[in-house]
Amino acid sequence: MDNAATAAFASWSFDWSAVSILLAALLLYIRGWLRGRTLIRDQSDPSRLLAFTAGLFIIFLAIESPLDAFDSLFLSAHMTQHLLLMMLAPPLLLLGRPFLPLLRGLPKSFVKEGLGPFLAWPVFKNTGAFLTAPPVAWLIFAFMTVAWHLPFCYELALKSSAWHSVQHACFFWSGILFWWPILDEHSKRPSWIFIPYLLLADMVNTGLSAYFVFSGKLLYPTYDLVRVSNLKAGDDQILAGLIMWVPGSLIYLVPAFLLAMRVFAGSRAEQAPSFERVRNRPTSKFSWTSFVARHRRWPQVALLLVAIAVMADGWFGKQVTPMNLAGTLPWIYWRGLSLLALLTVGNLFCMACPFILVRDLGRRILPAKLKWPRALRNKWLASALFVTYLWAYEALNLWNSPWLTAWLIAGYFLTALLIDGLFKGASFCKYVCPIGQFHFVVSMVSPREIAVKSQSVCQTCKTFDCIKGNSQTRGCELDLFQPKKLGNLDCTFCLDCVKACPQDNVSLINIAPAKTFLADTYRSSIGRLTKRTDWLVMILIVTFGAFVNSAAMTDPVMMLILHRKAIFIIGGTILVPALLIGICGMLSPGKDAVTKFAILLAPLGIAMWAAHAAYHALAAFVPDIMPLEILLLDAGVLLSIYLIWTAAQGKIRLAAPWATLALGLYAAGLWILFQPMQMRGMM
Amino acid sequence: MKKLFVFAIAVLAWADGGTVLFHKPAGDFDITVFSKSEAVRAGVNDISVLVQRGDHSTVMDATVLLHLEQKQTSGDILRLTAIATHAKATNKTLYAVPFNIPATGAWRLEADITSQGKTGSATGEISVLPPLPPVANYWPYVAMVPALGVAFLINRKLRQRYRPRLK
Fold this sequence. Notes:
The complex is a heterodimer. By secondary structure, chain A is an all-alpha fold. Chain A has helices at residues 3-9, 16-37, 46-64, 66-69, 75-95, 99-105, 108-119, 122-131, 134-147, 151-159, 161-183, 194-214, 233-265, 288-294, 297-316, 325-344, 348-351, 354-362, 380-395, 402-422, 427-432, 434-442, 455-459, 465-468, 496-500, 533-551, 555-560, 565-587, 593-598, 602-618, 626-647, 652-674; strands at residues 448-452, 506-510.
C-alpha cells in the first residue's frame, strides 16, 4: 500500500459531539437492557444488544471513518456512506428492539412525567402509526432515495454542510421508517406483504443505480473539479452505481427471500412474544458504598501525594504557569474533574479530601476538645472566605503564580489541621472551608445522595450509631442524622455513617437531581432552608460568583475592571444579587418568597461554573467547545425555570419575576461565553 | 509524551476538505486549495491543500507553506504565513492549517510547495467576508431553550388532559 492509500485509511475524524451521542445512546440502551433483563427474560436476548451496538457502530463508520473524509472527493465513498446510513444501520438498530431498553435506561420519573404524556398523546400515536404504515413508509423512503439523488439536490448537499446534514438525516430517518413495519414484533400484518414491499423498493434502487451506471453523463459536476486518483469522475460514478446496485439490492433481497421461506414454510414469527417474568433474581451482597467506605483512605492518600507534588513544584519548580503542576492541576483540571464528579456521582472530592487525612493524623497529637464558637456556627464566615477567594484569584493572579498557589494549599492544610485539632467535630468542613461549601451547593444537583435505605429500619434503632458513632467507628462529624437528612447539603460523603450503621441501612442512593431544592422541610443539622439566610447568601454567592468569575476572564470585562477588581467582585457577588433578588422579591408576593425562589437560581450558576470549567479543561483537546458550554448553560436555565415553575405551583405572577431573572442571567452567561476568553494556565 | 499530546490535539482539531477555493498548476505540481466552510470569514478558517503530480497521484512528502497577503489602506502589506501539515488534517492526504484571518476583504493566497528538490508556487484571490455573530453559528443550541420550554408547556397541557390515563 502506498503512502497516499495508508494516509487515506488513517483519515478518521472522531468528532467528539457525534461520538458522545453514539456512546450515550449505547450506554442508555445497555442500562435499559440490563434493567429489562432482570424483569422480563424475553427482552434479555444478547442478540438484541449485539444488533443495536452493531447499528451504532455502522453509524460511527459512516460519519467518522475515511468514508466521511472522502465523501466530497469520491461519489463512490459518499454512496457507501449513504448505504450504511439508510440501509444497514436502521434495520440493525431496530433489530435491537430499542424502544423499551432506551426508555428503561432513562430515569423513571423523567419517563413517567416528561415523556409519558407525549407517548400517551393520541396525536403522537396516530402520527407514528401513519408514518410507519407500510405504504406511507415505503413512499417516504422511495421519495428520499430518488429526490436526494437529483443533481440539483445532491449538488446542494455537496456545497452546503447544513444541507449535507439534512440529507444524511433524511436518509437515516426514512430508513428507520422503511424498516420499522418489517421488524415490528407487535405487527398484526401478514408477513407476505413485505415481500412485494422489499422487492418494489429494490426496483427503485435498481432503476436509480442503473441510471448511474448507464446514463453516460456526469450527474454531479462537483466530483469533476478535483481528480484525486486515476479514477475519473465518470468511472467513479459507475462504481457508485454498482455499489448501490449490488450490495444495496442484497439488503432488500436477502430479507425478502427469508420472508418468503417463512411464508412458504408456514411458520410465521408473528406470534406474540413470550414475556416471562424473571423471578427469584439472585441479589448481590456486595455493596460499592461499603467497599468505598472501608477503603476511603486510599484516594485520600493519592490526593495527598498529588497535593505534595503540586506544592513542591509550586515552590521549587519553574515559575511558568503552563509548565508547573501548581499552575495547571488546581486551576484547570481539578476544578473540571471535581465538577464532573459532582454532576455525575456526588461530592467525591470531599470524600477523598487530603486535608482531612492530615487533620485526622494531627488529631492523634492535638486535643480537639473545644466547641466551635456558637456565633460562628453558620455559613457567614465561609461565605466571606469564598468572596475573598474570588477576589484573590483575580487581584493576586493566583492562577498565574505557582508559588502563591503552593502557599495557599499549604495554608489550607495548616488551617484544617489547627481548626480540627483544637475544635470537636468537622468544624473546618462545616463552617470554614470555602471549597467544601462550593461542593455542598453544587451537590444539590448531584444524582446521588447518602441516605437511609429504609426508614422503618431506623424507627427501631436505639443506638443512633450513624450520628453518635460506636466503638469501631465515629458517627457523622457534621451532625447529620441520617433519618432526618435531606439532600447533600453539609454532607462530605465521608461515609462514616455507612460504616457506623449496624443494620447496613445507609447507602449511596439515586435521587432526582435538584429535587431537594423544592423540599422546604426540616433538614438534619440545617433546619428549614427558607429560614437560613446564611445558606441563602452562600448559595447566591456561588450562583452569581460563576458569572463574575467567568466574566473577569473575558477581554471587555478585563479592560473595564483593570484597577477595580475588588469593586467588581464584591459588586457582582453581593450588591448586584442583593438588588436583583430584592426587586424580584417585591414583585413576587408570598411568605418566604425570596428564600424559596432565590435558591432555585443555583442550577443556572452551577451550569455556568461547569461551562467555564469545561472551557479551561477541554479547550485544548476539543476544537470547538462552545456547543458543550451552551448545552450546559441550557440545562442550567431549564432546570432553574422548571424548579421555579414547580415551586410557584404554576402561578405565573409568582414565577414570572424569578423566571425573568433566570433568563436574564442566561443571556448574560451566553454573552460571557461568546466573548474572547483568556486561556489561563495554558500554552 | 508531549508529542503524543500534540498529536491527540491535531487529530481532534481540524476537519478539512469542503469548498474548493482554487485549483491551479504550481510548477511540477497541481494544487487544490479548500476551505472547510462554504465562505471564508474573518477569524479562524481551516484551509487545506491537495498536492498532486501531473498524473493525479498524491504527493505525500511535500512541504506546504501558505501565505496570505492583504494590502492595507496605509499601503503596507499584511502578510501571514503558516505551514500546512497532514497532522492538522482529518483527510490525511491533504495538508491543512487553521488560519486566523484578521480582516475582511480581498486577500491573496499563495501556496509554496517543495518536494524532493522540486518546487512550485500558485496564487489565488480569496474574498474574506465579515465574521458571523456567535449566535448565528450556534443558534441551534440556543434555540433548545425555547424549544424545550414549548415542549414543557405542551407536556403540562397533556398531563391535565390525560391525567386519568397516565395514572
